Amino acid sequence: MALVPEPRHAGARRGGPHRRVVRHLDRHRRPGAGPRGAGPRPQQLEAQVAARTAELRRALESLRAEVEQREQAEANLRQMQKMEAVGQLTGGIAHDFNNMLQGIAGSLEIAQLRAAEGRTAEVLRYLEPARQALDRAAGLTRRLLAFARRQRLEPKPVDADALVAGMADLVRRTVGPSIRLELHLRDGRARVLCDSAELESALLNLCINARDAMPEGGRLTIGTEDVRFSAADLVGQEGAAPGDYVEISVTDTGNGMPTDVMERVFEPFFTTKPIGQGTGLGLSQVYGFVRQSGGVVRIESALGRGTTVRVRLPQHAQVHMVKEPDTAPVPNEAGPDQTVLLVDDEDVAREAAAERLRELGYRVLEAADGPAALHLLDGGARIDMLVTDVGLPNGMNGRQVAEAVRERRPGIPLLFITGYAGTELPPGSEVIDKPFELDTLARRVQAALARR
């Protein structure tokens, strides 16, 4: 008898329980998915990429907005700090200048009264304090220009060791007997190229600050050293070039400074001294002078550990230096029929200068601006020299006036006078800074005409 196999269970014929599980999973497969074992369809990938791109775009826009908000906040903070510094600067200038102007005004008023009363012997007694106040005002403007790196320097090769050694007696008298001065000089041959008078002033300012930091006495050390800086050492130091430098350090054993004070020490008119005991311009003047001279200034301090200020100036090849006379000679009388064209928009200043030149025998033509000066020349006036202020009104500055005059009178000697040379002058120009003594002007005019 033939055996016929029993038919299997229906579920078994279709794969049994395992097959049923697979069908269950198929029913729950994501819409649009391909067959089992296949990857996502192209349209699904595109949708996922688009969604992710949109998400990243939203994150990027959010980040940009956050950066813009932070930059705006930083800009607002910088503006606030700038306005605070401007307010401090203008307040300090107004305070100091008003004090000086009061001294000048009071002295001149008393001198005028004594002259009117016929007590002429007492007039000079009150004119001298007025002159002293004027000198202090001139010094204040120089310190401000030094901070702004706008003062006109007269750089010459300077032996830093000799300069420091030569200042030793002055520094000792300034700091007093309770502070011991020590000099640690490198005894090198290298020179620095800078304005020696401004370097002396900067070092004296540092010594005075050191003295004030040691009211109970202590030790003040001034040292010099040859140092070399690479480009990496000078990152962030605008105007300073890699190479060899001479470092002049001033170190005290005072109380030192906290970090918040160190961050502001170079700001003009910032001071921790009591009112009347400091202008707050000492360190800012040092900073401006050093940077304008192509150097770097560093300050190191900590509470209880004293302070060191390091002035670093570029080395310069040794050059023979001619010593200038200590006292200026009295200007000589003018040569026969020498005419000077004097251009200055400040009437009082121009008239006083013209009067002194006339006393010495010069013929002086006066003009308040460039067009007036050129009108004199175009009218046939003969001149032997031009003396002109740099900052002039009515469309022509001093340089433009000089160029126009030399077009009409080639080779004529020029002398610029200025309170602030914001205009760039030709290299090698003769310049005299206001305020100046009238005899200084006369000597410069005499020397220029003698070289003609």
From TrEMBL:
GO MF terms, alphabetically ordered: phosphorelay sensor kinase activity
Please give the SUPFAM superfamilies that the UniProt record associates with this protein: ATPase domain of HSP90 chaperone/DNA topoisomerase II/histidine kinase, CheY-like, Homodimeric domain of signal transducing histidine kinase
Q: What is its EC number?
A: 2.7.13.3
Q: Which residues form the Histidine kinase domain?
A: 92-317
This enzyme catalyses: ATP + protein L-histidine = ADP + protein N-phospho-L-histidine
Principal EC category: transferase
Annotated Response regulatory domain residues: 339-449
* UniProt entry keywords in alphabetical sequence: Coiled coil, Phosphoprotein
Provide ranges: composition bias, Basic residues.
10-31
* Modified-residue entries (4-aspartylphosphate), positions: 389
- Stretches for region Disordered: 1-45
Coiled-coil residues: 53-83
Q: What is this protein called?
A: histidine kinase
